[in-house]
Amino acid sequence: MLVNGVDDRLKEIIQSVCTESRAEILELEVMPEHVHLLVEVDPQYGIHRLVRAIKGRSSRLLRQEYPWLKSRLPTLWTNSYFVSTVGGAPLEVVQQYIENQKRV
To answer: N or C: at which end does the chain have fewer Cβ atoms within 10 angstroms?
Structure first.
């Protein structure tokens, strides 16, 4: 579980990577074991590059800034991630789903 400001710092890092990659965050929730991120990214850039950049930078920076993470977690991220396109689905529905995950 991310505590003591780590979740807020993670959100800042994700925002920074997305801004640099010209990806727009539509919704973001940090959960104890995973992150829900609804993002619009240029297909030419690729979601895989964005995810790799987010995981790489956040792992490096969070472990530098919060040394206790090194001893508590063998790795900050796994190699896996789930991606789904929302296509014709109303974005409001997907955003609401992600927002409601904090309460589940």
So the answer is: C
